[in-house]
Structures are given as structure tokens and as C-alpha cells.
Design goal:
This protein has one domain (2-173): HUPs (Rossmann fold). Helix content is 38%, strand content 15%. It has nine helices and six strands. The protein is globular, with a radius of gyration of 17 Å.
């Protein structure tokens, strides 16, 4: 089974990487493809250029087997819609390959506002990464929709290519990309918030971008 983890990664940090690693190991995934968006649909656009975010993502993932930086949304250009990315992956990987979309609990709660969201579970499973003891917010979903899709045993996801939702408790670090950008604006160190291979290059790139 292949995991797909999309986001701005503006920049990528340990708050992205640690939960993904826990999912990767717990489910024995073949790989997780980290997909930096090109252009955000409904929110502030990334501060760092797409190519910069991609290069830093490559650097951050470099030492972890099974972690892959995937530039499909950057190469496609325009607004990055998750349903389009899943359609592309299905065309490339075939209809029978199990795919799992990794979402944080906040992102999942807003899923019904996404473009063609009902198609997403037709093309992939969803793994909701939540803090220990946390609950999924179902208020925006049609009544009974989530419960009809929930799978209690994550190992069952590999039995079908798509269509199920599983909740996984992961370590959630209180780190955000906005916090990192604020530190960079203040010319303060981001060491120990991002991988060591990324920290120095990020500092230099931020100064060049915001000059």
C-alpha cells in the first residue's frame, strides 16, 4: 500500500515527519509520497517558491527509506486539487493498488468543503492522524457517512484499493510552518524544529526570498 501525504510544506518540519513515520511503520507501507502543492485552492499561498519547497523536502526525506518527494502537483501547475492528484495516481498505478491519503484531524474535519470530495474515497483510503485520545469532528459530514466507512483494524486497508477510513493515534508535535516562518522573519534559529539538513539552507533561502 502506498501512502500519499500532501500539503504546502512551507516549510516541512518534524510535525509533518514524525506522524508520517509512525503511520509508515505501523501499516508497513511500501512508501509514503510527500506531495507539495503548487498553488493553494482556498487559502494563503505558500511563502516559499514551489521549487524551493520541493528541494527542501527532498533534503529532509533523504535519510528515510520509503519516504519519497513527489512533484506531481508542481509539474501539473495551476491550483492543486486533491481529487485531481488521486485521479493521476490511479492512472499511473492502476485501479487495484491500495492507496491511502494521510490527513490530519483538522484537515479531515473540513473534507466536505473540498472539491469533488465524495470522489476521494472512491480513489483512496483515508488515514486520519489524530492526537492520542482525540475525536474526529463529524459535524460537516452527512449523517452516518463516516461510520459506514470506518475500519477498526488498519491492516485491512490493504485488502481493497480504496473506500475506507481509519483513525490512527500519532505523536503530534506543537510545531507549525507559520511558527517557523515567524522565527525566520525575526532572524532566529529554527534548529531542532526542522531536519538539520534543512535548517541552514532554509535560513539562507528565506533571507533571499524576503529581501
Amino acid at each position: 500500500m502506498i501512502g500519499l501525504f500532501g500539503g504546502a510544506f512551507d516549510p516541512v518540519h518534524f510535525g509533518h515527519l514524525r506522524p508520517a513515520l509512525e503511520v509508515f511503520e505501523a501499516l508497513s507501507l511500501d512508501e509514503i509520497r510527500f506531495i507539495p502543492l503548487n498553488q493553494a485552492p482556498h487559502k494563503r499561498q505558500p511563502a516559499l517558491p514551489a521549487e524551493t519547497r520541493y528541494r527542501m523536502l527532498q533534503s529532509a526525506l533523504g535519510g528515510q527509506p520509503g519516504f519519497v518527494a513527489d512533484r506531481c502537483e508542481i509539474d501539473r501547475g495551476g491550483v492543486s486539487w486533491t481529487v485531481d492528484t488521486l485521479t493521476e495516481k490511479r492512472q499511473r498505478l492502476g485501479a487495484s493498488t491500495p492507496l491511502a491519503l494521510l490527513l490530519g484531524s483538522d484537515a479531515f474535519a473540513g473534507l466536505p468543503a473540498w472539491r469533488n470530495w465524495l470522489e476521494i474515497l472512491e480513489k483512496a483510503h483515508i488515514i486520519v492522524m489524530k492526537r492520542p485520545g482525540g475525536e474526529i469532528d463529524e459535524s460537516a459530514f452527512p449523517k452516518g457517512y463516516i461510520q459506514s466507512r470506518i475500519v477498526r483494524d488498519p491492516r485491512r486497508l490493504g485488502e481493497q484499493p480504496a473506500g475506507s477510513i481509519v483513525q490512527m493515534e500519532v505523536t503530534q508535535l506543537a510545531i507549525s510552518s507559520s511558527q517557523i516562518r515567524q522565527l525566520l522573519d525575526q532572524r532566529r534559529s529554527v534548529r531542532y524544529l526542522v531536519p538539520e539538513t534543512e535548517a541552514e539552507a532554509l535560513q539562507e533561502q528565506w533571507e533571499a526570498t524576503t529581501r
